[in-house]
Specification:
Number of helices: 16
Distance between the termini: 37 Å
Number of strands: 16
Shape: globular
Strand content: 5-15%
Helix content: 25-40%
């Protein structure tokens, strides 16, 4: 099966419509573009069947399905959010700066830290990677419930990008959530495991949990300075002048030149500048850049800001842009309305939160775990020293992670030690390095039950052949037959408990 068909949840014959069998009446389309250059002007093709998809070449496409598409003079239209028929996948786009593209292991570890799971597909792009999180089944969009499922999906996508951005600032948080992405093929796909798909309900739970975690320290800190009906001009905010006079903003670090122009343009629109005045300001801003955009692109962005139903610049984008390109937090006037008060930075506080220590500990494991062994062998004193973490705090966060994200094997006494590996190292080894996986099962007595539990929780077991069993005895490997090869054990009894 082709990767594109896997993402689109192909059922049955090639001529089937691009939807699942239980929704035959909802026929949809996808859009395919020959090259990236064809995205300007939307010069592409509208594809209505899997047969047509196989016959249509293109480097870019819409992996999510739309209700209809129109073509006029070689340009296609219809790939807007409210025309979505079904969402098949969430895509994270990561664009690194020049000469900074890391290897695939970095991206896999990044996914492990953010999601505590492996992605379905990773595509290599000229500047970075695109990470596909393919759903078990499509999430269908309907206007009958006022597009509730669309808004839920968009919130999930926003939180996914935020979470990735917290760990890697090259994450693009500004691209269209369900728009055009690289089309996977044998040449650009560097990771693919069909067993690691995601249930929409599970991602929704993750998103709710993420919202609670990230908003925990902001509660009761929202204050209204001015009358809620008063529109304070965003162009008078300090951040606006900061960004407007920056000359180092470029592409390749998540949000770049295009998003800066759009953010500044939206601030002008909110401040009741007319479109021509805004264009003149953006033209001046562009002329100061060391690597400016084309005039055509500036005009397109300004026009987009005024044509769409934006009401002003996003606080989140303002913060990301100023922190990324200016190395500082945005300056807001005391007269601004509806802004959250910023929480103190970690450096300004006496104590760190457990979530911050957990993040430090996970980064420490990512850095120290040997690629050859799949684990780190150390002592708790060394971990305390390396992280500068109090003993009681370390004990507390390890207890939180034990059995969920990490596996331990300890030896007490004068020559004692602790060996640590992670869930994601185990699952990655299971997928792409079976020799390492077998070694890890020999090193960690609880690893086999841990993997079995994880496969059940992530609904992977149903995708594995019926003869898959987990060895009940300690230090015996998992018998796992699939298209990448097999590991065989001596016993074939499922574990108890």
């Amino acid at each position: 099966m082709l990767l594109t068909e896997f993402i689109l949840h192909r059922k049955g014959l090639l001529s089937n419509p691009l939807v699942s069998e239980n929704n035959q009446d909802k026929k949809g389309v996808v859009f395919v573009f020959p090259t990236k250059a064809n995205l300007n002007g939307s010069h592409g093709s509208i594809v209505r069947s899997f047969n047509g998809l196989e016959q249509t070449n293109g480097t870019h496409w819409t992996p999510n399905i739309y209700a209809w598409g129109k073509s006029k003079s070689g340009s296609v239209s219809g790939f807007e959010e409210h025309n979505l028929n079904a969402i098949n996948t969430f895509v994270i786009d990561i664009d690194f700066s020049v000469n900074r593209k890391p290897d695939i292991d970095y991206i896999i570890n990044l996914c492990s830290v953010v999601l505590q799971a492996l992605p379905t597909i990773i595509i290599s792009t000229p500047k970075g990677y695109q990470v596909y999180l393919v759903l078990d089944d499509p999430s269908y969009i309907s206007s009958a419930n006022n597009f509730k499922s669309l808004y839920t999906a968009k919130r999930i996508s926003e939180n996914l990008r935020r979470a990735f951005y917290e760990e890697e600032k090259a994450t693009d948080t500004g691209c269209n959530h369900f728009g055009i992405f690289r089309r996977p093929n044998e040449q650009n796909t560097v990771f693919f495991d069909e067993r690691f798909t995601f249930a929409f309900s599970d991602l929704m739970k993750w998103s709710i949990k993420y919202d609670r975690k990230t908003n925990k320290f902001r509660r009761n800190k929202l204050r209204l300075i001015t009358n809620k009906n008063q529109q304070y001009p965003q162009v008078k905010e300090g951040w606006f002048d900061q960004l407007l006079h920056a000359d180092n903003i470029d592409s390749g670090n998540g949000l770049g030149r295009n998003n800066t122009v759009l953010t500044l343009s939206l601030a002008c629109k909110q401040s009741e500048y007319d479109e021509e005045k805004t264009y003149n300001l953006m033209d001046e801003f562009n002329s100061r850049l060391l690597n400016p955009l084309t005039d055509r692109e500036i005009r397109r962005i300004v026009k987009s800001a005024y044509q769409k139903s934006y009401t002003g610049a996003s606080r989140e984008y303002i913060q990301i842009l100023t922190e990324t390109w200016l190395g500082t937090s945005p300056q807001f006037s005391s007269s601004a309305k509806h802004w959250y008060k910023f929480k103190k930075t970690r450096q300004e506080r006496t104590y760190s939160h457990d979530e911050e220590w957990i993040s430090d500990f996970k980064k420490y494991l990512t850095k120290t775990i040997s690629n050859q062994k799949g684990y780190v062998k150390t002592t708790w004193k060394e971990v305390q020293r390396d992280l500068s973490i109090p003993k009681t705090t370390l004990k507390r966060i390890v207890n939180k992670l034990k059995g969920q994200d990490i596996i331990l094997e300890t030896k007490r006494g004068r020559k004692g030690y602790v060996k640590i590996t992670t869930k994601n190292v185990l699952l990655r080894a299971l997928s792409v390095n079976k020799k390492l996986y077998k070694l890890l099962l020999l090193e960690f007595s609880k690893a086999a039950k841990f993997v079995w539990k994880e496969l059940q929780q992530t609904r992977v077991v149903s995708r594995v052949k019926q003869d898959t069993k987990l060895i009940s005895g300690i230090n015996e490997p998992l018998s796992f037959n699939y298209r990448w090869g097999s590991l065989e054990g001596d016993n074939h009894a499922a574990p108890s408990g």
